[in-house]
Amino acid sequence: MILVWLLAALALVPLISLPLTGRIGRRTGYPLGVVFLLIAAALVPTARDVVGGTPVTFSAPWVPSLGLELGLRLDGLSLVFIALALVIGALVFLYSPTYFQSGTQRGFYLIMSGFTFSMVAFVLSDDLVLMFLTWELTSLASFLLIARSGQAGEPASMRTMLMTFVGGLTLLAAVGLTIARTGTTDFSSAMASDVWQSDPAFTAVVAVLVAVAGFSKAAQFPFHIWLPDAMAASTPVSAYLHAAAVVKAGIYLLMRFTAIFHGVPIWTILLVGVGLFTTCLGAWFALQQTDLKKLMAYSTVSQLGLITATIGVGTEFAMAAAVIHTIAHAGFKSGLFMLMGIVDHQAGTRMIDRLPALRHAMPWTFAATAIGLASMAGIPPMLGFISKEKMFAAFLETPGPTFVPGLALGVAAFGAVLTFAYSGKILFGAFIDGDEPAPSVQEGSWLTIAPAALPIVIGLPLAFVVSVFEGPVLAAVRAVWPDYEGSVSFYLWHGVTVELVVTLGVFVAGTAIILRRARLRPIVEHPTFPKDGAAVLATVNRWLDRQGMRLVDLVRADYPSRHLGPMLVSLAVLIGVGSLGLWLVDEVAPLQSGLNRPVDLGILVIAVVGTLALCRTRSRIGGAVLLGGIGIAMTVQIFTLGAADVGLTQLLVEVLTVIVIMLVLRKLPLEFSDGIHPKNRRNAVIAVGAGVAAALASFTLIGRRERSAVADYYVENAPEVTGGDNIVNVILVEFRALDTFGELVVLGMAGIAIMAVLATIPRRFLDPRPDPSPESPATYVPPPVVELDAKGTRAYQALEDTRANTEALRLLQKPLVPVLIGISAVLFWRGHNAPGGGFIAALVAACAVAYVYMAKTADAPVSRPRTPVFLIAGGVLTALAAGFLGYTSGQFLEPLYGYLGPIGLYSSMLFDVGVYTAVLGLVMVAFNVLGTPSDEGQEPDSAAATDEEVARR
Amino acid sequence: MNAPYLPLFVALPLVAAGVASLVPGRLLHRSLLLLGPVLTGIGGVWLLSLHLTDMPVAVAQVGGFVPGIAIPFVSDTLTAVMLTVTGLTTAVVLTFAMRTGESSLPYFTPLALILTGGVNGALLTGDLFNLFVFVEVMLLPSYALLAMTGTWRRLGVGRLFLTVNLVTSAIFLIGIGLLYAAAGAVNTAALAGVAGEDPRVALGASVILLALLIKAAAVPVHGWLPRAYPGTSAAIMALFAGLHSKVALYAIYRIYTVVYDATSTYLPILLTIALASILVGSWASFGGDTIRRVLAFQMVAGVGYILLGVALSTAAALAAGLFYMVHHILTVGALILASGAIERTYGSGNLTRLANLLRRERGLAWIFGLALLSLVGFPPSSGFWGKVSLVMAATQSDAVVATVVIAVIIGASIISLLALQHLWREVFWGPPMELYRPADPLIHEGDPNRPVHLPEWVRIPRGDLVPAATMLGLSLAMFLAAGPLFDIAGEAIAGILDPTAYIEAVFP
Prior knowledge:
The complex is a heterodimer.
Chain A: H1 2-24, H2 29-42, H3 44-52, E1 56-58, E2 61-63, E3 68-69, E4 72-74, H4 76-99, H5 106-124, H6 128-147, H7 153-182, H8 187-192, H9 195-198, H10 200-217, H11 226-229, H12 235-243, H13 246-261, H14 265-288, H15 292-313, H16 316-347, H17 363-377, H18 383-395, H19 403-432, H20 446-457, H21 459-464, H22 470-480, H23 498-515, H24 517-524, H25 533-554, H26 560-584, H27 598-616, H28 620-640, H29 644-665, H30 680-701, H31 709-722, H32 727-735, H33 737-759, H34 794-800, H35 802-830, H36 838-855, H37 867-886, E5 897-900, E6 903-906, H38 907-930, H39 940-943, H40 947-952
Antiparallel strand pairs in A: 1-4, 2-3, 5-6
Helix pairs in contact in A: 1-2, 1-5, 2-4, 4-5, 4-12, 4-16, 4-20, 4-22, 5-6, 6-7, 7-10, 10-13, 10-14, 12-16, 13-15, 14-15, 14-19, 15-16, 15-19, 16-17, 16-18, 16-20, 16-22, 17-19, 17-20, 18-23, 19-23, 26-30, 27-28, 28-29, 29-36, 29-38, 31-32, 32-33, 33-37, 33-38, 35-36, 36-38, 37-38
Chain B: H1 8-22, H2 26-53, E1 58-62, E2 71-75, H3 77-100, H4 108-124, H5 128-148, H6 153-183, H7 194-197, H8 199-216, H9 224-228, H10 234-259, H11 267-284, H12 291-312, H13 315-346, H14 357-360, H15 362-376, H16 382-395, H17 399-428, E3 435-436, H18 441-444, E4 452-453, H19 462-480, H20 482-497, H21 500-506
Antiparallel strand pairs in B: 1-2, 3-4
């Protein structure tokens, strides 16, 4: 439970930081630092138990279906990292108020304390998923900290995020694989699984994934580039990031998983190889820098490489060395960072070339820095000396062929020489070499120096009582090797050993370099490689960008054929290959008899010829006529199959479609703008391919089974169940009334949709204009021109005199319209038993409407503007009413039957009324909106609603 | 089991649509506009509680005919989840449409309500032909909504959207025809497992799946979406993003698990499509010129992630895919609405015209930033669980599949991250913005495309950000409530993987 309290307390810190920064501004660092120290102090009794050998655990379910538990475990290893996070965090907080010169630094305190929380939660996680979650939280926090440090930090923060994101993904993959194979998300149980021994290939894969994850945070090559980048952040952030938080999360991960992977060759090779390479690379880069902060950053990269390599050795002894160096490094590096911050502040620069000799002006800073650097360089009697000696000794245990330990030690020693050299460079560059400083350069405030120097200075006495670390480090080692029976011992002096000899060699070589620094610096201080990491990343980014653009270009088109192409090709491939496959595996059922009729061939020829002609014609009217012709051919086929209802419907729809198309065509040029499109050939191939495939699929699947059970039911039971003899009609309005209802809504609302869309477009954009408008020639469409005889001739009058032309139509209107309406009524009534029904009846009535429209002398609306809306909405509501009526006997749309005297009544008739009015309404909309030239037929208020008005509202 | 009230999910929005077409009145319209989706959402929650306690499947045999003849409306846990999510999403998005004034366009209210009714019908129906009908009911108002709102480009892309969907509908219908020819039924419950056994039925049903994949915008038939959606307004894009592709994906989930019995025969095809969508969508995000076009490509990638659930077809993968779907609806919705808020104040969503919004717009930056983090899968957001659960599901499949899937997810995630970093850099960082394109005619003096000097006081009104913040808040809530939510997703998936209860409910 103490662990939950610990996390709860840490989670509260960011929350209290918000009001605190509001009250006391950037001085919030003091109370927060004290709170961290108090929390650390409160943890001491538990820590004693843990060091004594009893880990503290806690577990509660969180997402059981993913197997995720809120599993926490405090053992020796986590304890070390928690202590670092809290103590260094506290010091950084105490340092910050005087370091920052302005602002409340609300974001800094908020994210920093959130960061500490996620770091502690990470090292406490005993659940693989929780471990990944908190790992991501630390990534996020480090990104935010760097991102908020101004424009210089922005690109750097992006790179940091990318690097840690990559590591996060590989960790996720590792976690996922581990859970899948071991069947548990609990880290301790997963660790104990025997999968790791029985499946070396799997173990190797997970080992690589975990190693990459660890490298990404611990800034190992090639992920090392983010760490110097992160220097853009303010000094307290850097101090914390480098010493105690993100990078240490990477180290922790590698240490934790050593429990599983310590004998795995690839793990050893990766960690030792990459670690040692990074330590030399980092140290070399550090030596090249003239910016103190950048130098420190590369120094961190180098130190982390050393720790990583030591972990890779994979023995208990090496682990102890890695842990003690982690502690030592956290101490001197956090202190050095903060001290460099003071130098930067007081001297106004952190470039070695410009820095004066500060040792007299800033004696305290000088002294503390010197001690810190001594520790980093591994000079006795510093803690850094002890830990580095330990690591050197550990390298002698590196597994592998006999030359490996020696080689590892040699490379590490080379790195140490460079380390020694750059440590000297800092000391001499900042404090000893250079001119005397201006009198304005003064020592920093003790409030700043004290927290900065503390982690360094404390290392000095600790080195003499270094045995206090033995308990905790042993506990940390036992966290990884629970069965470890040996002990851990640290001495300042342990006799003349190989590592001591190596260390002495390092000192000699390092000192030699420092003494020749004036000559060496110009040779060293220029970039080794033509491109730095950021430039490489930028190149990758640009390449990805270009390829991404190509993917966008593939679909960058508003003309439909570009998008229909892939659809139809997919269809053709799917059903073509599928059908052929069925034939090949002989899964095709035998064809039913009596399906082949000569008449179908004739219809096929008509349809094919019509389609071909439609594709070739340039005349829009010709296109409309051909389309109608193809439709009629289909209608004929439907009639020959005996589906009178469907055929009638189809016929009427074809007629009305042609009329509506003609209404639109009047506003368009006579011919299609470009008949020959460059892609036409390809499109033709696609179209023919899709057609052939569809035909093949039809032939393969259709007409090869007995009548379905559903069809049998209709044939046998429809009249009895519904009282109607017309099966098609009762299917439409009773059995599948819901489908019809849906289509009714579609049809009716098509009318409303037309009105809605056109209402948002000013009419001047819709109708052809008398002449091209100068401001928008693109919208100009030349009016269709038909060559006529000269004005005044009889032929001219016959076409242009509308009144005379429509006289005959108007004469016939009087008798014809009532007849049409009568037919419509009859069709409606008989629908239940014979071909007819609401839809067909409405289409006949629509013909009457069309007739009225054409008989007018001018293009005028056929009704008042709102009438179609009433019809459509009324139709939908009527059909719904029929549906609700069904509830009286149990279900929505359940048909009711009754008698009014001798006449049979059906609730489906009400439904049919709805169909009737909605269809009629749609047709009226078409005439009103498309058949009129001006704003007539539109609601006046809506016609002018344009974008600007919408925006204004 | 008998639940005759299910058709009300369709009927009531349509009644409201009818009334709204006839009766004017701003207050009435606004109330109806919200009431439809909100009631749907509440109904969804209610159904969910019902399914999780004592009635796993609810059925209405519409018309009261015998089972198999009547068109069934069926609700199980999956349906209820979808009803809840789509209903609430629609409600939130429509509040944004109200703020922008789009809801006052003529006939907006009936069109939006019909869309709601169509979505509900498509989710509830247990009959594939009826599914086609309700997809049409969804589409018809969508044609109008797409072409009514947004810039002038809406008309060009409206034509594209219309053509693509008409052809898709034709493909859908061909599929139903072939399926009926092969199987002799279109009732989902009657078809259970048939396509898994009979390759002819599988061929017929696969055409339906193709149509649904086009609607969902999966690679290689994805191109229309990033062209069409950014051309309309943010509100409508958010609405479509949450409804259209997701209904199609829902149908794919149901058809593949129930009709195909989740057979492994065709999984390689689905897997290829899913992985290609993930990769292409992520990568193409680089090339987006506006915020919403980047998001449109991210939607393609999202479709891939959701399809991964079916493509692996294990209980864990399907549940992960379902969770991801809900996450994606909320996260992308939040981003689109936030982009809409930007466009409303600054007059453009173009990456090159926007800059340095971080300094001006703290609230927006928080919403946008967190939503982007959710999109790439960082905690504390729904995207984290989406990513984790999918990867964990992938690791449970066989070694080759797991390797390929994880490799693609890792690669695509990195590319996505870089693309979204690019988006963030362009919009929120960089040199201070100097020009903007205000909608206010008093400032732009008649030409809304003319850039005008950006005064210091210009800020996005708080209210414009509320809908986006609500969506984001739900995404963050999903992070905390992942436990119970995954339980529900597990229940929903159990119901389609073993449709016995579903079949017994339809054919008692």
